[in-house]
UniProtKB/TrEMBL annotation:
It comes from Kitasatospora kazusensis. InterPro entries: ThiF_NAD_FAD-bd, Ubiquitin-activating_enz. This is TOMM leader peptide-binding protein. Pfam families: ThiF. Gene3D superfamilies: NAD(P)-binding Rossmann-like Domain (3.40.50.720). SUPFAM superfamilies: Activating enzymes of the ubiquitin-like proteins. It comes from the Bacteria. Residues 129-193 form the THIF-type NAD/FAD binding fold domain.
Length: 374
């Protein structure tokens, strides 16, 4: 391990002898009694030396091995240290042009995952993950580009037809892509976001692509937000593949639910909950998701809203890949173009759905408290 002070943290002097790392109050850390020898020692914690070499340098500065060891331990406990060697190895998994682009993402991960070497391990896991996005419109293509820029190793967009003017957005297709095959243009958008050179082919995993770690359902017209198609949802549930519903429906952006098959509420739960509130909902939904006259002639999709939804959805995907629990699990998030507000709504598993029946303990077995939000 080559310890380094996290470069993402600012260093601010509170007074002549007190050094503060970071500015966000909840995560900021303070080092007191920083005299010249300690300040000089901190300058050496830059990732170029092994821990043993740092301790030797501390002795030469007059700290003594014990004090230098204590200081390093205090910095580590405070979440201020990272392993420069592990960070370099994680970035080395990516093509050289992408390594520089990923440096800010790696710095952010070091704050979210504070233990030394933890953030590089998360980035390495991202490099091995595959995400499939079904729907390459204004929202779906932007999600793919953001995920590729964030280090997800394989991002595939599945769609048919050709790019239309309503598919274009600053984070996805440029207007010059109008008329091109969506599958081709979307793949190139993902490669550009990852820093791939023009014409460069994406690296393929030996032995073929692994199964997706997550599928994003992002229909171009937003009609599948919450539910997608019944057949598609059931297929993903049976295969045990986590999936996230995303879309812009009229003036409302929707991210969620993110479904963990057998462990969280699913899209059918949302449909059944809406049915309980409005008995006509199944009939309306059939018209909305079909090819009949119920579909809007011109689907609404505000550019700023679509970009915000794509960014939020990509963040939730990353949180899931990184081992976290996004707020779209057992719920969904709404972004409104009318007031700019973001809201999180809770979703409970519906008793008529059955998606969690397999996780219910047998009669007479010990029961644990539900982990669903209340």
């Amino acid at each position: 391990m080559r310890p380094m002070l996290k470069p993402a943290l600012s260093r601010l002097w509170r007074d002549r002898d007190t050094l503060q790392f970071g500015t966000v109050r909840h995560h900021a850390r303070v080092v007191e009694d920083v005299g010249q020898p300690v300040a000089s020692f901190l300058d050496l914690v830059d990732g170029t030396r092994e821990r043993s070499a740092l301790l030797e340098a501390g002795e030469r500065l007059g700290l003594g091995g014990g004090l230098a060891e204590q200081l390093l331990g205090s910095l580590e406990e405070g979440g201020l240290l990272d392993d420069a060697e592990a960070a370099a190895e994680a970035l080395a998994r990516y093509p050289r042009p992408q390594q520089g682009l990923l440096a800010p993402d790696a710095a952010s991960l070091s704050l979210v995952h504070p233990a030394p070497g933890e953030a590089p391990a998360v980035l390495r896991a991202r490099s091995l993950a595959r995400v499939e996005i079904r729907g390459a419109g204004r929202v779906g293509t932007a999600i793919g580009a953001v995920l590729a820029a964030g280090g997800v190793g394989s991002v595939g967009l599945v769609d048919r037809g050709r790019v239309s003017a309503r598919d274009c957005s600053p984070a996805g297709y440029p207007p010059t892509d109008i008329g091109r095959l969506r599958s081709t243009a979307a793949r190139e958008a993902v490669h550009r976001a990852a820093g791939a050179a023009a014409g460069e082919r994406h690296r393929r995993t030996p032995g073929g692509e692994p199964p997706p770690a997550l599928v994003v359902l992002a229909p171009r017209d937003g009609s599948g937000a919450f539910t997608g198609t019944a057949a598609e949802s059931q297929q993903l549930m049976r295969a045990g593949v986590p999936h996230l519903y995303v879309g812009v429906l009229e003036h409302l952006g929707i991210v969620g639910p993110l479904v963990l098959p057998g462990a969280s509420a699913c899209g059918s739960c949302a449909t059944l909950a809406r049915r309980d509130e409005d008995e006509a909902w199944p009939r309306l939904l059939a018209q909305l998701t079909g090819d009949g006259p119920g579909r809007p002639r011109s689907a609404a999709c505000d550019s700023a809203l679509a970009t915000a939804v794509a960014g939020l959805a990509a963040l939730h995907v990353q949180l899931h890949l990184d081992g976290g629990r996004p707020p779209s699990v057992d719920g969904w998030c709404e972004l409104s173009a009318a007031d700019g507000m973001a809201r999180r709504l809770r979703l409970r598993s519906h008793p008529d759905c059955g998606c969690l029946w397999q996780s219910v303990p047998p009669q007479g077995a010990a029961r644990t408290e539900s982990t669903h939000p209340r």
